Amino acid sequence: MPHTVPHQKLFLAGRWEATDDSIDVVYPFSGDRIATVSAAASTTAVEATAAAVAGFEVMRRLSAYARGEILKKAASWIAQHREEFARVITGDNGKPIRQSRTEVDRAVQTFTAAAEEATRICGETIPLDVRRGTEGRFGIVRRFPVGPVLGIAPFNYPLNLVAHKVAPALAAGCSIVLKPASRTPRAALMLAKALEEAGLPPGGLSVIPCSRHVGDLMVHDETFKLLSFTGSPDVGFDLKAKAGKKPVVLELGGNAAAIVHKDADLDLAVRACVTGAFTYSGQVCISVQRVLVHDSIHKAFVERFVQATGKLVIGDPMEEITDVGPMIDEENAARIEQWIHEAKQHGARVLAGGERRGRLVDPTVLTDVDRGLAIDCREAFGPVVNLHRYKEIDEAIAHVNDSRYGLQAGLFTRDLGVALRAYEHLDVGAVILNDAPTFRVDTMPYGGTKDSGLGREGVRYAIEHCTEPRLLAVHAPHES
């Protein structure tokens, strides 16, 4: 008898529905089909859009307390189902199981923060009696939810990056339709279950796995008042062009750099950069792709970095000991292999790794890399890091800025003057001092410049995108 796999229905405004089409979920390590998920057709998208309009009228009238309670209950449900979530994440995208558990914990934090921020959406009172003839006037400014939100999420963090779209929207009083990545839809559908159990009104959320074509139909639809997208720059800016008048938040790619200055704590820098380079096989938009090391410590840093890289365990991501698992598919693994080969042809030296076995790419350390090659100037999104050297801090800053991306950068130094100079001149969304650029907590503003995107995520900052200020100008004339 043929092997059967579990099937997951999609979530349409409070209803679990099966459709005629389905999406296969493949375990990246083995290539085996492990599940199927109902796929939305254009008619389903139309239903979800209409439900979001009706749901918005309900959501906008919920008290801050009620929204916060729903989000707190969802956070609790996620925490209670931690291991199940982690295994779904690893099964769908091949992330090592320990890293998947960390993602679940972060999603709990994201929903908890959103619950708190739901009660802190503040306005202000401003004087309007600022010129002759305006006596007795003042203004009240409140933030109101913008309307139905469309969220499109990537494969690499299929729970927490979904949470960064769903939780702020609900906290603000918006409804949201979510398109999860087709490769990794199941964690988002589990999240829908969490919110259903938490008592979210039926129209507050729809999770509809679908094709790019169906997603584009919703992007075009003026019913949605905000588009929030995380993914590649090419797709993101294409969607922005299709989005019409609606505001767009884009959290896109990067080729993050870390600067290791001459006074750095080498053990700290090596440990942080190895973790930052090879976590989830480098399939992280703030993965360390370039490390710029001061001449005076270059030799010592390289020796320690290569040694630490060689200790990483590569293999089945379901195994507790695994540090580095497969890439999402063989196509991307082959691309990384080809980029490494191209770098070697142009004089780069491989200090560690460089080999591929199917979807597994060994953690790879390169030096003497031509800065114009794809492996250095484009987003690798794989387990590869390039080591460069510099003499003066301004040289390192210029090197980091010589990129189409500007998401985050790391700097290791004890010199406050150097730190402030880098903070002033690095053209990035965040400078991470004495840690890798991969550092992120879910309450901080997160986003970048140039091809790294528009706007900011991070719960409070995302809520600002999900709301708009409205002024009440009050005339209270004094009695004569």
Distance between the termini: 92 Å
Strand composition percent: 15-25%
Superfamily (CATH H level) name of the largest domain: Aldehyde Dehydrogenase, Chain A, domain 1
Shape estimate = globular
Q: What CATH architecture of the largest domain do you see?
A: 3-Layer(aba) Sandwich
Number of domains: 2
Content-based structural category: alpha/beta
CATH level-1 class of the largest domain: Alpha Beta
Helix content: 25-40%
Quickly count the helices.
15
The overall pLDDT average reads 97
- Total E-strand runs: 25
Please name the CATH topology of the largest domain: Aldehyde Dehydrogenase, Chain A, domain 1
Quaternary state reads single chain
How would you sum up the major sheet?
A: 7 strands, mixed
Taking strands numbered 1, 2, ... along the chain, how are they ordered across the largest sheet?
Answer: 15-18-19-14-13-21-22
C-alpha-based Rg, rounded = 24 Å
Low-confidence stretches: none
Report on the structure:
The strands form seven sheets. A seven-stranded mixed sheet has the order 15-18-19-14-13-21-22, sandwiched between helices. Strands 10-9-8-11-12-24 form a six-stranded mixed sheet, with helices on both faces. A three-stranded mixed sheet has the order 1-5-4, with helices on one face. Helix 4 runs parallel beside helix 5 and helix 5 (about 160-170) crosses helix 15. It folds into two domains: about 5-250 and about 455-470, Aldehyde Dehydrogenase, Chain A, domain 1 (3-Layer(aba) Sandwich); about 255-440, Aldehyde Dehydrogenase, Chain A, domain 2 (3-Layer(aba) Sandwich). It is α/β, with parallel strands linked by helices. Helices cover about 40% and strands about 25% of the residues. The protein has helices spanning about 40-60, 65-80, 80-95, 95-120, 160-170, 185-195, 210-220, 235-240, 265-280, 300-310, 330-345, 375, 395-400, 415-425, 460-465; strands at about 5-10, 10, 15, 20-25, 35-40, 125, 135-145, 150, 175-180, 205, 225-230, 250, 255-260, 290-295, 350, 355, 360, 365, 385-390, 405, 410, 430-435, 450, 455, 465-475. The chain has 15 helices and 25 strands.
